[in-house]
Amino acid sequence: MNFFKTAVRNIRNGKIFSIINIFGLAMGLSACLLIGLFVTDEFSYDRYNEKADRIFRVVYDAHLNGSAFIANYAPYPMGPTLVREYPQIENAVRIRYRGDIIVRNGNEKEIESNAVSADSTLFDVFTLPMLAGNPRTALSEPNSVVVSESIAKKYFKTTQILGKALVTEANNDTTTCKITGVMKDIPAASHFHFDIIRSMPEVHANLVTQWVNPYCATYLLAKPGVTKNEIDRILNEAVAKNVNPRQEQYTKGSLKEMTKHGDYFREYSIPLSHIHLYSNILAEFESNGRISTVRAFMIIAIFILVIACVNFMNLSTARSAHRSREAGVRKVLGASRQQLIAGFLAEATLTAWIAMLLAVLIAILLLPFFNQLSGKDFHRNALTRPWVLIACAITPFFVGLLAGSYPALYLSAFKPIHALKGQLVLSLKSGWLRNGLVVFQFAIAIGLIIGTLVIYSQLNYIHHRDLGYNRDQVLTIFNTNSLAGQAGIFQAEAAKLPGIVGSSMTGYLPNRVHDGAITYYKDPSAKANEAFLLQRWPIDAQYIPLLDMKMISGRNFSPDLQTDSSGVLINETAARLLGYADPINKPLYRGSYPDDAFHILGVVKDFNSGTLHEKIQPIIFHLAVDRHAVSFRIKSDNIPALIAAVRQRFRSLGRATGLPFVYSFMDDDFNKQYESDRRTAGIFVSFSLFAIFIACLGLFGLVTYAAEIRTKEIGIRKVLGASVRQIVGLLSADFLKLVILASAIACPIAWWSMHKWLQDFAYRTTIGWWVFLLSAVLAALITLLTVCFRAIKAAMVNPIKSLKTE
């Protein structure tokens, strides 16, 4: 109790230092709380599944003559075969994404994006609670469908809808499904969010035994105790038994020979709980996070907490000239060193407790801003989670011990006679530990500044990089596939509008990810060494000029030449992959029959499709009809009026009755692909500012300390004619040296860290020398501003008062 009373009195007596101490710690702890919420949420994905630790997803991985295809696919018979032949596999479920479907809602039609087909075992593998219906039989009948709670309320205003009909349209196929179940909405922390789950449709007999071509996502439920290594061994056996013989027959080559050249077809597993942070392959149901981002934020949280603790040490040491006399008096009165240490630690712990309470309040106030930055939806009750409460209870003791240990040991070590006489030789130069802590703080701050500059340099690179196509002023109308044959009429009529200067009809747009790959051959014998995996894009003759793509050689498709139906275009990456010195008029085959030959008409300059995280894929363009979208290049001063006119042309078509008119601009779609990167940058910058601010508080403490121990020196220098500027320079010089040392330490470490971060991008900026110079200059300016604020005050003190005081 005495320790507590003394701690309260000391906090009250040193109000300025206490406020800075508490506020600095509170800022650091609140940042750690917010980052902790983000990190735990990222790691919690898919943990809501009761059997999460036993669920694995199968991944298809093919490498063939320099081309690669890694996707969320498996052959159609893979799941049932593994359950039947391997006792380690308890169950399996196949899920096939259906893309955008249309749901009839009275006379209107709505587009739903989260629709899939799945086996009846879905609810045995995943924990998807049902509000109505039997999960064991809900998907056992053809054309049965399970909908989410949100869909049920959207279309029927209630969840009691068993037996009712849900009419859907997809690829011009209208299906009436019987609703056999209503499930709760899938939790936010999930790598998929299905709203409409239809029973797996009957497939052609050939597909039941089709092991060569991947067809759908497949999840395996292993029996308890079965490891990932065991699952991978089983997959290798299944591939060797079922896939490889058929693959050899299909490619007319030996897999042993293929392996010698680094080519292979394989399947491996990934644990369910790893998908969100460790998987960014083709055909993901949703965009996933990145473990590198989570680790970076964890490191920032640790740095901020350490900086806050160092801050506390420096500010406590700054008061040592005053507290040393207190320690001397206590020792004279019989207090042991252990008692002094306990008292100082009690004061530090009490300060940490007050800071912790303030940190929770700051975190609550910043939560809306943090949600906007991170794209999360945390509520205040997130701070009442068990791990948060435990952390809040333990952290003050840990921080009090960590931050209070150095001041406690330092102050308790004074000899009473020296402390009472004020004979403490507390030279700044001898305070190697304190200087080292300041160097450590600013090394972190400079590193974070470098990281911030590199991140924004990469985002600027993304925005200004020549992508190989022109995405500006391109209006895209989606869902035109539902117009069937009238899609061409819509394109022709809308293209006549003033303000539209070009059009093209295809859903294969470069600002979207396309996951299909087809095997093409240079020779009709279809041998493995002549096989290549290429992305097939169906386009029309207007596609290349609409997007301002460039032809490197050859020519574009011509609508006037019927022979172009057997012609193809390839991009530069595909041309390099095929190995032709001059690919024009060279043949390509999709099978082992000469009748399937295509001839190469031209080579398109490489362009980035998807995001810059991925390398440019080899692409082959066919002159073919794809009605999934119609794009228009516009040139108009009144874009809203032009969009209204296009909408009117769309609505005038008979098949458009009730259809939603969905459009977007290509540059907006491009920017949306980098929302995650921008959020990462925003969080990084925000917490970097946190760290820099707290580091400045620590620097302020050390300047205060320096001014206190050099009060007499400053007074003498002023008597001898030193100006305020000279004294400020005297105090600033030592700290600028520390900043220079911190820069020398931070720059190589920051370069290595950001170089690793940039590896997530296939196309990236370079880290220029100016980044390090600018970071060092900014750190020096921040240091000067902080130092000058306190140094000027010390230099302005009347020298007579300084000398009299000393």
In short:
With 806 residues, this protein is of the alpha+beta class. α10 runs antiparallel to α15, α10 (291-318) packs parallel to α21 and α15 packs antiparallel against α21 (675-709).
Characterization of the model:
- The protein is an alpha+beta fold.
- Helix 15 packs antiparallel against helix 21 (675-709), helix 15 packs across helix 24 and helix 23 (724-758) runs antiparallel to helix 24 (769-795).
- The model is unreliable at 425-430 (pLDDT under 50).
Largest sheet: 13 strands, mixed
State the assembly state of the protein chains.
single chain
* Secondary structure tally, helices: 25
Kindly name the structural category: alpha+beta
Q: Note poorly predicted spans.
A: 425-430
The percentage helix is: 40-55%
Averaged pLDDT: 83
User: What is the 3D shape?
Assistant: elongated
**How far do the termini sit from each other?**
35 Å
Number of strands: 24
Compute the gyration radius: what is it? 34 Å
Strand content: 15-25%
